[in-house]
């Protein structure tokens, strides 16, 4: 079972610009996250769960960004206690039978369980340093570093390019003796 796709749920939620201040906002987020089929089941309780989960997951990535391994593990363990995993065999969207991680029937709980379990599996299998906070100023988006050499530093190619161009221009200014 590939839990990286579940860990991506955490990234999508933390990075979403949707304020999650209404059911419509949460539905827009679910569409953005590729979960449009689930949007019809959304309740106010799911909205509350998603808002709380976003803050908790952002704290996990923030702890990882400062290399606070104990803090990451403590936060994930706290989330795991509140989000027990219940595997379930499922088939949808023309796919074969496969394993889903769920907690009851609420959409918010299912999303939370998948995101937390995905991050937990990634951290235990690959390490805390695989959770990243984009190093391109002023971006604060998060990412999962699944590169083979643990070299990812940016959330996207756009941020990487912007940071590289800024560094190049800074070097050129320094070489020409002009003030920054």
From TrEMBL:
Gene3D superfamilies linked: Jann2411-like domain
The organism's place on the tree of life at top rank: Bacteria
InterPro entries: ABATE (IPR010852), ABATE_dom_sf (IPR023286), Znf_CGNR (IPR021005)
SUPFAM superfamilies, per the entry: Jann2411-like (SSF160904)
Zinc finger CGNR domain location: 130-172
Database matches in PANTHER family: BLL6575 PROTEIN
Descriptive protein name: Putative RNA-binding Zn ribbon-like protein
Organism: Sphaerisporangium krabiense
């Amino acid at each position: 079972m590939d839990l990286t796709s579940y860990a991506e749920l955490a990234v999508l939620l933390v990075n979403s610009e949707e304020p999650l201040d209404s059911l419509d906002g949460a539905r827009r987020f679910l569409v953005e996250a590729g979960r449009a089929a689930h949007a019809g089941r959304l309740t106010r309780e799911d909205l509350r769960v998603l808002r709380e989960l976003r803050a908790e997951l952002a704290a996990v990535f923030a702890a990882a960004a400062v290399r606070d391994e104990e803090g990451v593990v403590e936060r994930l363990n706290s989330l795991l206690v509140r989000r027990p995993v219940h595997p379930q065999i499922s088939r949808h969207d023309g796919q074969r039978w496969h394993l889903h991680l769920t907690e009851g029937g609420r959409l918010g709980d299912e999303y939370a369980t998948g995101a937390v379990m995905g991050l937990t599996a990634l951290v235990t299998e690959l390490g805390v340093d695989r959770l990243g906070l984009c190093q391109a100023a002023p971006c604060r988006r998060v990412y999962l570093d699944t590169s083979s050499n643990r070299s990812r530093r940016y959330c996207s190619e756009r941020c990487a390019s912007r940071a590289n161009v800024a560094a190049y221009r800074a070097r050129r200014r320094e070489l020409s003796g002009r003030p920054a």
